[in-house]
């Protein structure tokens, strides 16, 4: 009930007026009939008002309670993974691992209350006393010393460092005393040096166990070399880089990329913070965050040094690499992510589970909002599973299908746009006076320029393309699994979203000659100094109005990147034109994220927010571009030869620059400069930058 309605219906009735008249000495009826009638009517009206208010307030409270409840209620669909899939009885070879990506070296078990191991260090001349975990050292000294063994080999896990370290898990666990124990072995050394430590459980040599030869010295060296050789052999068999003629340096880059990605796999367990969706966008939403149920997550991370937690849209790219190496790991990871599904079909885009993970995350990023989506990149490895036809993959997809369908359905409905077949990312920043362009964090592209003035009228091109891809993949999966009802529902949607006429109508900007977002926009915005506030946004003329957003870059390419265009499409040629234009997106180091001609190119978004997706070269989108060029280069059409040529040139530019930076610095980087190719952002970033391996292998 509106507040105005409550005021009108709450006016005094005749009964009080009669009392007021008596107090003033006026005549009052004494027969009681009229007074009682008016009093009864007034009482009834008052009761009705009170009841309406109570029902309205209780209804709103019940609705808020219901939404909060569903936000933290796990989805009822059967799990995608078998029960206890992480237990040592079901997966003993995966139970122990280097599953603490946020520390320099640490191991744990895949269990809710794991046994943790780790290294601590102290430097005598350090100004920071104590024995901190080797976490900060990762930022400056972590290198590519990981080599993980193939499945089926010895369950021992090795980490090669300048000194050799080994954890022996062959025997049963040691006999504790019911309390935590801490053993300190002091070693004072003069660098350079190496130390070899061996830990053995005493219980492993009791109870009639055979004597075990200590794995140390030359025996350890031989074992490490044997595992390294097995890794190299399997690597070549899987990716065939040597067979394709790649140099030893490029092969080493590929091995380092894969090893770093595998070494960044973590196991997390705990409760996340969730802000329920009250269907009120912006600051008007008045509700406190609530705790999500305790859940496990087995996932790779983008960067052990800077982002040591699960990111939904990163993980799809991670698994494109991992599934080529070990499909079972991908099934485990996707199954765990689908286990995070809430009752509505939502999955949080960042997962901060457990005290260790929470300690590394700024407080403003702890809360996940159930109205916010993320690109459904997990469907990329799902599509690869469908193409491969592995029986184990198909059996997994059969179990996972109800959850995949619920997730896609939530995305399709919750992010629907202002007109049919349009979509809008919820959760854009408000138009604050300190921001050049309000960010769109849920899209994954953060500060990529969108409409200058956020509104409900926006239509986001990249989101529509993700939904189109999702409908296509889910329809294929439903057909392959024999899910007739789901296929009948998804088929028309996939056809509608795949129709280029609809895409043209909503997103083709004739005045720009490219696909684009649509919204309340003006290019006449600048950050200018306004003492003492600092840099403030100034909006000039023309004033914002509904129009296509002139921001040529990655978003403009999405119909091409996700292969939604027909090889004979009249829009494919213009896509290749802007992609290959050195004044726009083409650089000697890969495709830049925003055209060099854009007024937002390399511009800060605020005084304290440097450019991020405004020109730098990113490996994940460049990999999608390589895949699209390879795809159109192998399909008959007017642009086949050109697409094939551009694929070769882009691949050479991208791989060559990543290799040079890797040799110069020893790291894979978050992004690369489009001006000189240098690595930028955080490092090591062996998340989606490891896609350079698939680019070298030409595996799309």
What are the segments in which pLDDT stays under 50 over at least 5 consecutive residues?
1-33, 129-146, 152-178
Strand residue percentage: 5-15%
Q: Radius of gyration, rounded?
A: 30 Å
The number of distinct helices, counting runs of at least 4 residues, comes to: 20
Mean pLDDT: 85
- What does the main sheet amount to? 3 strands, antiparallel
Secondary structure category:
alpha+beta
The end-to-end distance, rounded to whole angstroms, is: 56 Å
Q: Give the helix proportion (percent range).
A: 25-40%
What spatial order of strands do you see in the largest sheet?
Answer: 1-2-3
Query: Strand tally, please?
Result: 23
The global form is: globular
Q: Explain this structure to me?
A:
It is a single chain. With 700 residues, the protein is α+β, with helices and mostly antiparallel strands. 39% of the residues lie in helices and 11% in strands. The protein is built from 20 helices and 23 strands. The strands form ten sheets. A three-stranded antiparallel β-sheet has the order 1-2-3. A three-stranded mixed β-sheet has the order 4-5-6, with helices on one face. Strand 17 and strand 18 (534-539) form a beta hairpin. The two termini are 56 Å apart.
